[in-house]
Amino acid sequence: MSFEFLIPVSRDDLLRKTSVNQYVVEEVLSRSRIPAAVQEFKQASRSKPYAVVDHFDAIFSVLTVQRDLDSELVEETWRSLLRACKVFHTSLSSTLEDVDIPADTRQLNLTAVKMTLYLLCQFIEMYQAEACHSNPIMAKKGHGKAAKQQTKNGMDWEAEREEGVQTLVQILQLHLNKLWDPPIPEEDFVSMVSSCLYKLLENPTIASARSKETRDAISHGIGALVKRYNHALSASLKIVQLLKHFEHLVSPMAQLVEIIVNHYGNRSIVGDIMREIGRMDPRDAARDTSGARAYSQFLVEIGEKVPAATLPNVSVVLTHLDEESYTLRNGVLGMMGEILIRILSKEGLDSYQKVARDGFFDRLQDHIHDMHAFVRSKVLQIWLNIVNEKCLPLPRQEMLVGLVLGRLQDVSSQVRRYAIQLLTAVLKCNPFAAKLSVEELAISYEKEKAKLGEMMPEDSMSAVGGRSTEELEEEWNTILPQLEEALASLEDTDTDTDTSTAFTDEDTSHSIVDKVYTLLMEEQYPSALHLLKAAYTAWPDLEVFQSTPAEISPEDSEAQPAESEEPMNPIAALKNIFFEHRSPDLAKITEAATNNSQARESEGVEVNELSKQQVLVQYLKDSLAFARQIQEAVPILCQLLGSKSTSDVFEAVEFFVTSYEFGVSASLQGVRKMLVLIWSKEQSVKDAVVAAYRRLYLESATGSQRSRALSVVKNLSKLIYGASCGDLTSLEALMGQLMQSGELSPHVIQVLWERFTLKIADTTPQESRAALLLISMVAGAETDIVRSNLEVLIDEGLGPRADDDQLLAQAACQAVLKLAIKKKKGQTVTEPFRLPPDHHLFTRLVDLLVSGMKKKESRFWIPLAEQTVTLIYRLADQPDSICGDIIHRIASSLQQEIEASASDGQEEGEVSPVVSGVLTKLLALAGQVALQQLVYMEVGVLGELKRRNALQEDHRVKKSKSSKRKSSVPETEEEMGLAGASADDAEAEYIRKLCEKDIVTGCNLLATLQPLLVAVCTNPGKYSHPELRTAASLALAKFMTVSSEFCEQQLQLMFTLMEKSPSEVIRANSIIAIGDLTFRFPNLIEPWTPHLYGRLRDPSRLVRKYTLQVLTHLILNDMLKVKGQISELASCIVDHDEQICGLAKLFFHELAKKGNALYNILPDAISRLSDPEVGVEEEHFQIIMKYMFSFIQKDKLCESLVEKLCHRYRATVNERQWRDLSFCLSLLSYSEKSLRKLQENFSCFADKLVDESVYACFTTIVSKSRGGFAKPEAKVLVDELEERLEQCYNKGLDEGETAQRASKSSSAAQHHGKRGSKTPARGTKTPGRRRGRGKENVEDETESPAVRKNTRRKQKPKLVFDSDEDDENELFDVEDNDQSGCFDAPSPVTARSRGGKVPLGKPARPLREVSSP
Hints:
Keywords: Cell cycle, Cell division, Chromosome, Cytoplasm, DNA condensation, Mitosis, Nucleus, Phosphoprotein
Subcellular location: Chromosome; Cytoplasm; Nucleus
Family: Belongs to the CND1 (condensin subunit 1) family.
Number of helices: 64
Distance between the termini: 111 Å
Structural class: mainly alpha
Largest sheet: none
Region (Disordered): 953-980, 1296-1413
GO molecular function, one term: histone binding
Number of strands: 0
């Protein structure tokens, strides 16, 4: 063959001849000649191996004019080319098997290879470009269920591409280098083939699952180029370049590297790629986030796929751990994690691998505290994978858990999420025990430790000089004074002594420490100190210098930094050496015991038990430490259950479920806290809680149905024990959901009834009550459970057992109450379920109350009575007659006790304890009856009337529709509706009048108890029993709730009890009652609201808490106007009680959501809180204002506040108020308009700038504003303000110095007897405070004061820091022994009227009784 085929750069190069033997295309065939030439090539391609060489011009012509040709002809050419390539591959493989290939054959085959692969690559590139151009969306997305790529004629290009690439790779995998002489393929050939393969990778569809075969073929082709054609360096550079520009190539490139390393044995390419990534400019990585993300993912994947090849090259990318790009940090750390899991967690590591493993773990631990949240979360994910793969070394577990505990309170929700997941995973994979009860482990540890001490031989203890800590402390304290003297003399005389010759080169750190100890014991203290100083110079990182003294606990030492800049403390170091050599270290004891045992082994003594005991003690010690760490996380995770982030809630729930399964002692606290989440608005959270309790209490049971049901009942009963009212309410909602979803089987219900009725052996009364409570909870969702077993409830729950167990009777009442039909929202009223008044249920309840009344120890009688009255009014037909009978019987008993007390000689002015007890129960019962009678009338009776009216109306409408006659005056639907509404209003008014006149007032039973009730409340001396006074105050509140007339009469008494009662429980109950009365009779309570605010300063924490809650409820529901007393609420932000502080902050947070409500009260709150007479400290004032101003974000509000606050400077009377106003101004965010407002009102505060704090606040405003404006005009405004501030400040300083010098001169003149004229001194008289009261905005009418020119201070108008409300005056005092004349204070209501009453549209809320703490 006389010509040579040169790889062209472009197709046109084949048309121009540049050398003698170069092959050129003589003619590009015309469109008319191409079909015949293609047919000839098609025939030749079936059998001739060199068909491509013979017909190269025809195929090249097709490539050149393919746009003008029929697509079927081009596809036919492509398929013929593939067939020719396969035939040529078969011929070439047999040729290359020969050892000596003739020159002409070699040249022919080389030309054929070049031509064949050139045409094949050209066709592949052409079709690939056409496919991407025809489907650009596919090219961009590259994933999803997209349509297959096709050519114009409908050819499936993906299948054709796969076949073409495989044919290309098959040829490349032959020993083509034999065709070159020397056997080194030319660069143009390698570049041509590799470029084609890399272009195929640029298409995003290559990453899809359908293209796996093509992707593998490309990888093997590039692998062949790397192995046989010296393409390694070029491939590494190209891979890095592709990763930077094509993010979809992360996985394909990692797969390519894996194939090159594992199939073609080239490990160096991994190092080349990592080196290029390591050389990446950190600034470019920070800017190019897409490229950095691709590099990061690639590093993680090669760490997973080829960890052995990656490990030696990790050092070249470690620089990115300290750079700005957090994405690359994630990649490097993720790569380390994969290497740790796949290589460095195995057994039998060499020294290099152990060092690498420890280094990787250290890096991962360090970055748990990375400054970027994404890195922290990524590192926690890496640790999570390590723990799940069981690759975490046991010595690192304790430190890791300690670090994770700190991340539970991270600011990032993602970090918190993975921290909780990691903690849960560590708990699941812990190597210690399945049950981690701290109490049980502590007992076992102490027991086994004592046993080890008994088993330890005495000579082994004496061999290590075993002493107690107390003995060592005493011994140390005897030598300490001498050491301190030696240290002092050494510092005075030998501060610059050369320490380089203190020891020889043969000495080690341990030998020097031993020498120091020897000198210490020989009382050669100066020499010991000198040698210690030399040792510190040589080995500053020695443990005795870094660790804390012996008396400091290890926990404290961990909190201190490892590297301290403070100089070495010689005394502490010597103490460490002393304790290290003298204390009975467990390791030394074990070593001595081992040596001793070895000596005894030769004598035939068994020592296996001792070794086992040592291992057991160490195991228990590690288990106890781990359990305590897990228990530390419980309080933090309990807080995260209330997080706004649902991921926190989900993970915390999962942790508590897992920890409860592992027996962690404190986990029950979290399990109880989870109950409240059943009320969450997020359905996913509710589902997670239900699933958690299902897993804990339902699915954990195993065995037969009976045994599973028993286990479920026992588990659920544990939640009842010790539960609060809120817990029980939440548990009832949970049980209702479980019942509705069918999770509670009939077997569980059956076991509950058996346990309640004591049919199961060894059932305690507490377990019986718990079962009854669970039955009542389940009955809320399925009332038939109670309806069908009503007789059982009455016989067992209210039977003979109830005489001695009033809690059981109360639970039975709760269960029976489930029979009462509750109207749901949007549901029509149904006929109520009522029982006849002579039903034995009510008979038994009446007998229980009357018989239990005479018992002295009946703490639960009043709750039972309240529950009973509620039950009677909900289920009885004539409830008032039944309750009246109870009151009559108890009143008769009271009369008998009074007579018996009088016959016993009881003094007139005193009430016996027995009478007090009966009277307490009578008043409590009367109050509950009054309240329930009100609810019965407004809800039960009125609802029944409306129901009957609705039925009659429906019946009338149906009747009118059925009649065919038409009225002469038809009644429209609107008229019918108005008539019905009018009837309802009339009935409601009638019921209201009945409640007003005929329940607690008028001629009825409860009205006759009014005088007695008022007498008990107004005579604390005679009725001094605490429970009696508590019950009387609650009954008084309930009576007042019923009638506005009675409420108006007794308001003074109620507020007196609220303010003057010595019992905090009565004061707290009165607060709650007044809150309920405010909802019912707002106009009556409104004049008394200042007294309500006054309870925020009550000495009792309980009273302050309930006052704050009541005020919050009233204000946020618009029942109280926000007035000047809001400052009292603001002062609660700095209350010493954290709960009150949190409630106050929550109030202002909610108030800020109600439009501009918070902005409107801010000026008044500032005025009041800065008043010295209010007594708020300046530091507390600043804390309050910082919180309140954090809600002022709008520019318009800030502008208005700037102006208002500036005007208030005019009326200030002391420097404290200057500072407070200035501090408030510094808290605002300033816009350009706000700054202009500040400039316009500069004269208001110009003369106050002499104060350092005031000036500092304004400089803070300037510094905050300087960097926040881009406009030049705003910057000029800031500069002008700063200049004026400096001028006024400096001028004030100069005037102050002048005044000071004048004062000194005047004093000196008077001392020498020089008398001047009697001109009064200027600027020295302090204006007195005026007691006048005025509006807060009175300063708006005054002129701005001029900047002062001398030291004389002008008299300024006084600002009154108060609201428009009158001062709070104490109503009256109550003395214990006073019985009359102590309630004469005037009411703030000027005239009695009925205007305070409002229509009773809703049932009154039941008053809550606060139990005595």
